[in-house]
């Protein structure tokens, strides 16, 4: 009897809580459209713990031209991150490898070194902030700053990355300049690189030199 | 004649104003999906004054186990709040009743006492901020803090609540710990409560003790 | 013995919690400067429950030209609101009185009617959203919209207001147009009011007509 | 061979970059619904440079009752602005013309004078901030403040405007008060204007006086 | 000669860049006051790479009552995080240990398991989201949700944490309820725990039961 | 008599409005420290119209190595912008000149062409968004994207810029890579440029190649 009254009361509370559930988290419906604040929310009753768990933040394959691999746990991999302003990745760099100059246009990066030695840094027009990091060191790269990570040790290096966005972009400078159809002369004019250097890197990064009008 | 020129001019202004209307407010289309920033906007030409008005923020029924009632005016009750970062509720607590320990995970609460006497407070690990409030007193509970409200007077107590979110969650601690399927042993391990105490409250709040693996 | 170990452990947790205290709330040091995000924080160890409680949200004196009074509980009255994006006020309107046309440039307003009858509304260039409200009705006025509240009943009217800012501005249209030194001719030119009307209201609201160059 | 390995690597990077593309910008799908954070994003593979370019921020027709024209480049004109918090407009004011008192409820305006002389200002209840501006002068009108721009020179005046919103509203005070169906008596009561003045301006701005209940 | 002209030009660019430096990052002056947006910025010319690097995110001492340790890299440890909305920590849990029920009132937590087995979860009033995680698994705990982490394996467990705040609070439920001066009767009334249970845990967590008025 | 009552009433309203003044705008005290949300506010009673007006957004001197000049109206030039999220600049590019590749790490840029012909664009790893613009064209460069502007016409080119920040950074790629003390070998390793090319540009942009450890 009393039990029934209570259940009714709990139902009242739960009804305002189920609104809350929509609001306290918003698991991405990745089949729907994105928006400036993120993806639409899945209906709360379809959310499961697996929306909040990502498996596979493990060593990537570093047998490539950079001897490095980036494994991501972003909202498109992991819908529970939607709207929460944080994501993660794992960085593996073989001996002699590096993550070349790149930016995250809309996210700050935190680098947590767990194994090996990484020399990392970012630059402003007036200064370089660069340091050689070991296991247990953490470095922050503020949003939009051009930065790099080099394995400067004698073995492999491993790090975890955290980002201040559920869906950080990663833009390699070489791909921005040399990986697309920007004309070689225009690149040379706006970077002061020699045209020969530009063409050499376009050949490496797959860019096609075309004219524009 | 001049009237026509003017109308054309006004039309020009209105055309940029109708864009504004989409932006200056965004009434929720509650039949559509939610997103991290709120619901989609209803077409501006379908918006009426009733989207901006909620009726029924009146005394709730307090004949329940807590001798208290929370009546909400959140975005799901009141689509004009969408995207505006504010909502309201009414709190009625009968003599001897209380709103037990709870949190609003993503909203600050403002408590405006209008009748009776309420002892309210929130805690940090190092301090308690608790006070006995009378009509005309206002207390703020910062976002995410565990807090409570007790009718400490000789009659009923009434208050209005404002929240810094259009859709604040309300999570009663007893429902979080004892109202769901979290195993009793795990609750005991992570709260240091005695298992008997946990089982007693699970029986009261409807939780079913199951094993996990 | 065990107790000591535990205390050390608690100290560790508390040390990270005391950081949290700085962050989970930031009580305004009203003697210090303001900033775009609010006032500087008082040192956490000087914060008391009275920083989170405001007393005196009671009936204001309505014996004035508008037969109305606004009593505020904003951050400058109530330092615990600092940085939390919400504040409150009480509105008392005697029979026949009103709060004339006004805006809150950077805050949404929620009006909770508790006694009497209030006709309230806001306008866009293409529509009026106006309604007559009774006790238990709530109306929202989106940020920056020109709005009004009139006591349209036979007795006094009382309401509580919540704002989506810790420090909302309140700008009465008559004071903006007629309460300052804006030249009458310029007001007339930019409002299409007759100069005589402008001068009549400047006399009422204390504005001094001066020339500009 | 090595080329293939590299392509695979680039593909890996690009896959996380294509997520980024969704996030680093979100071009509006103007056929879809709006939300508090803006429109849904077009699929990245359908985005072209024309989404990021608006053509036609040129002189508007000033042969109207205000001798002025506002030409806008807002998100509804220019989908690449979606979610980026900035937009532009061009202002042309013929000799003797003006942009009457108006507000942008949710945007700050920056006025860049390029030709002629403009007297512009905004008011608070306690002060007027007004100045006569020439080419090369820039003035800022903080969000939600009532402001005006008058051509106070001997020829035409031209300015560019920037707004802190992709979709700023523009609300002319005369249209808010006199352009809609707000009853004349209510306008008079809430502005202290004479009813005759109200009716005269309703006739000019097209408002229809009706009763309310 | 040409060099000089160029230097002058670079100086012009640098002057606007040095403004940028203030804005692109704002390294905390931890000796100054905090604010709702974070600490004041150190003068850019006093910033060094060490402001962006934290050393010591290593295994904490788990010989305590919880057999667990949390090592933090928050803004108060690491001033370069100021204003960037992200921070990190390391979690070490010995066999049989756990991080008991706790909340971060204003931050989302990301848990990256690097060694061992951790059973973690959070609850809403209507659901439990709990899972047993292994190395390479990542779980997200949305802002303000009550959650726990238990070492459910046969050896020690290690994880890195990322937070969506530069200064996340960490509030252990037992310290909130039992570690301070909240009266036992009030705790019992607002949690439905038996008074004996409350007193037993107050004795363990150091709370002093006092009366209030 | 009635006048006095009214003045008292106006005083009441003004008192809450003067709070608003602190909040509706916050003019920078440029002698004080900056914070993540901007500078401290000047006392409202010391604010004048000149805080809201910047003079001198005029043609800059283009006789330099880039044949271009950027004239800024940022918060450090113009304290009224503080906290308002918008700023402006003027761009002058002589025939044959350009603004080389650069980023604004924390601001979106809007380019309004007023004279001449400018070829502008930004790149992602997978696409180039580039177009030749004429007077009346507006182009948006989303936050943090690498972009360029080239005078591709037969005469000088002039444009106004608006930014979604009161204090946008401007980082020229050549200064980031070649203008500071980053070692040539490290630049070569992280950009794939030839070391000779790096040294040639360091000589031009003033960078000093040093070793690091």
Automatic annotation (TrEMBL), chains A, B, C, D, E, F:
One Pfam family matching this protein: Cupin_1
Domain of life: Eukaryota
Signal peptide: 1-20
PROSITE patterns per UniProt: GERMIN (PS00725), PROKAR_LIPOPROTEIN (PS51257)
Residues involved in oxalate binding: 104, 109
Annotated ranges, domain Cupin type-1: 55-199
Localization: Secreted, Extracellular space, Apoplast
SUPFAM superfamilies: RmlC-like cupins (SSF51182)
Positions of Mn(2+) binding: 102, 104, 109, 147
GO MF term (any one): manganese ion binding
Keywords: Apoplast, Disulfide bond, Glycoprotein, Manganese, Metal-binding, Receptor, Secreted, Signal
Disulfide linkage: 26-41
GO CC annotations, alphabetized: apoplast
Major localization class: secreted
InterPro entries (UniProt xref): Cupin_1, Germin, Germin_Mn-BS, RmlC-like_jellyroll, RmlC_Cupin_sf
Similarity comment: Belongs to the germin family.
Name under which the protein is recorded: Germin-like protein
Organism: Vigna unguiculata
């Amino acid at each position: 009897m009393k039990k029934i009254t209570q259940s009714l009361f709990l139902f009242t509370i739960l009804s305002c809580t189920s609104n809350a559930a929509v609001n306290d988290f918003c698991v991405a419906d990745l089949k729907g459209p994105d928006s400036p604040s993120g993806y639409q929310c899945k209906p709360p009753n379809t959310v499961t713990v697996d929306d909040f768990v990502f498996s596979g933040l493990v060593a990537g394959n570093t047998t490539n031209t950079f001897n490095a691999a980036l494994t991501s746990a972003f909202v498109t991999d992991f819908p529970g991150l939607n709207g929460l302003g944080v994501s993660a990745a794992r960085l593996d760099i073989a001996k002699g490898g590096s993550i070349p100059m790149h930016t995250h246009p809309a996210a700050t990066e935190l680098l947590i070194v767990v194994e090996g030695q990484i020399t990392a840094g970012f630059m402003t027009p007036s200064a370089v902030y660069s340091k050689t990091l070991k296991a247990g060191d953490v470095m922050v790269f503020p949003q939009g700053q051009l930065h790099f990570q080099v394995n400067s040790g004698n073995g492999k290096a491993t790090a975890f990355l955290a980002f201040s966005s559920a869906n950080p972009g990663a833009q390699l400078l070489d791909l921005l300049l040399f990986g697309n159809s920007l004309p070689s002369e225009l690149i040379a004019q706006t970077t002061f690189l020699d045209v020969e250097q530009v063409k050499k890197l376009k050949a490496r990064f797959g860019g096609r030199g075309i004219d524009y009008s």
